[in-house]
Structure formats: C-alpha cells, structure tokens
Write a structure and sequence with these properties.
- With about 260 residues, the chain is α/β, with parallel strands linked by helices.
- It is about 35% helix and about 10% strand.
- Helix 1 packs across helix 9, helix 4 crosses helix 5 and helix 7 runs parallel beside helix 8.
- The structure holds zinc ion.
- Zinc ion binds next to loops.
C-alpha cells in the first residue's frame, strides 16, 4: 500500500472511507448516511484511504453461511461487506505502522457468528481481527460504545489471546449512571493492564456522548480517551492501533470523532 510521503509525519492517522458508505440500505433511520458523510467532511486535513469490500472468505472466518445468506436476502450484504472491508483496511494499515480510523457503517459489535441485531450485520471488528491474526496473535479490543459489544464478546469467548474491555457499557451494568468522566477514562487505561498485545482495536462508538443516548462524555473527553489508547498502544505494541466507528447518533458525531482522532493520532 502506498505510503503518504507528503505530510512528513508518518504517525498521522489515516481515515478509511468511501463515498459508498453513504449508500441507503434498509435499517433503523437513526443509522443514516449523515453519520459518516458529515464527519468525513470535517476530516479533510487527514489522508483518506479507499477500502475494498471484504471477501466472502474474510466474512466466513467469523460468520456462518446461513447468517451470510440471511444478510444477502435482506439487501444489506454489499453495505455490510464494505464496512467489514474498511475494518480490515484499518487493521492492516495499523500493522504497517499507520494508525487508522475506519469511518464505516453499518456498525458491527452486536453481530455474532449467526445473528444480526442492533443495526449490526457483520462483526467488522471480528472480521478485521481474524484477517490479521497470522501477524498479530494477541489482540486487545476496547469497546467505547455506550452499549455492550455482545457480538464481539461471543465470537471471541473461547479465545484467550483476545481481551475485550467494555468500559461501563449500559447492558453490562447500570454503574455507568453513577460515574463521571474521570472514572470512565480510568477504565480505558486499565484495559491495558495485565495483558500483552500485538495490536489494539477500538470499537469506537460515540453514543456515550453527553447529548447522545448515554449523556456522559463531553466532546473533549474523547480526545483524552484517544490519547490514553495511543499511549497504551505505544507502551504495549509499538503503537499499533486502529479504530472502527460503531454507534453514535447525535449530529455532533463528527466533533466527537475529530476529538477522538486528535488524541489517537
Ligand atoms: Zn451503541
């Protein structure tokens, strides 16, 4: 893959994106094209990389054929395969030493091997992780979406080389109602404790945002989260890190993403 020689900064985050991510498909109307189109327009200072769709072979490493057929018959296959391809692209860039943020939809962290729900069809994170597994055996996944990433957890349940941390997610514990931003950030930092990894993947949902459903994190808190993950990755795995868009439904989503990337870069 061509390296960006023009910026003079080899450690700048790449944005994985395609205008095809803006296509319409049958899903909950809150999960619409503006979720990626508006942030993309705000990230013009970064280099964009256009992904290819994930192959059937890539998808089938994670999902059963029956599940894949159901996604096909629901008219979601092309969109979901492109999102998964964006996730693979971000993970591969990260392996090459280029941190990346994949601005993709539909999201993936609720999709398990044989079930789609919660606006998720293919598990983008799991497909990316399994694709790069020959080169990155031990993987830390930090899921900062408001909702518990049940699909990702179910896929890697028996895999001791994958550690998944969901800081204070709503379905796991209602503790989040009693916490503040500093405790959330502490949970992100603690994700790195006691586990040596070859790469860090972030399921980057932004619905914990103050004005979104979660009502907790301010825009500037995402910069601190991004920074904490960058510093953890630099300490543990030579800075190898990538992030995939999951949830986030408020019109400020672009500001949240931009803030996260400013810390993650
Ligand atoms: Zn969510």
């Amino acid at each position: 893959m061509a390296k960006d020689q023009s910026s003079g900064c080899e450690n700048t985050v790449k944005i994985v994106y395609s205008r095809e991510m803006e296509r319409r498909y049958p899903t909950n109307p809150v999960e619409n094209a503006d979720r990626v189109a508006l942030p993309a327009a705000m990230l013009g200072e970064f280099q964009f990389i256009e992904p290819l769709a994930a192959s059937l072979e890539d998808i089938a490493r994670v999902h059963g054929i029956g599940h894949i057929e159901r996604v096909k018959s629901s008219g979601l296959y092309d969109a979901a395969a492109l999102a998964a391809g964006g996730a693979i692209c971000a993970a591969e860039l990260s392996l090459e030493g280029e941190p990346a943020f994949a601005l993709i939809r539909p999201p993936g962290h609720h999709a398990s091997a044989n079930r789609a729900w919660g606006m998720c069809y293919f598990n983008n994170m799991a497909i990316a992780v399994q694709k790069i597994r020959p080169k990155a055996k031990r993987v830390l996944i930090i899921d900062i979406d408001l909702h518990f990433g049940d699909g990702t957890v179910s896929i890697f349940r028996a895999d001791s080389n994958v550690k998944i941390v969901n800081p204070w997610s709503v379905d796991e514990s209602f503790e989040y109602l009693r916490m503040d931003q500093s405790r959330y950030l502490a949970q992100v930092k603690e994700a790195f404790l006691g586990f040596d990894c070859d790469i860090v993947g972030v399921s980057a949902g932004f619905d914990t945002y103050l004005e979104d459903w979660g009502g907790l994190l301010k825009i500037e808190d995402y910069k601190e989260i991004g920074r904490a993950i960058r510093e953890g990755a630099e300490e543990k795995c030579r800075g190898r890190r990538f992030a995939l868009l999951e949830g986030g439904y408020h019109p400020d989503l672009g500001w949240c993403i931009k803030s996260f990337i400013e810390g993650f870069r």
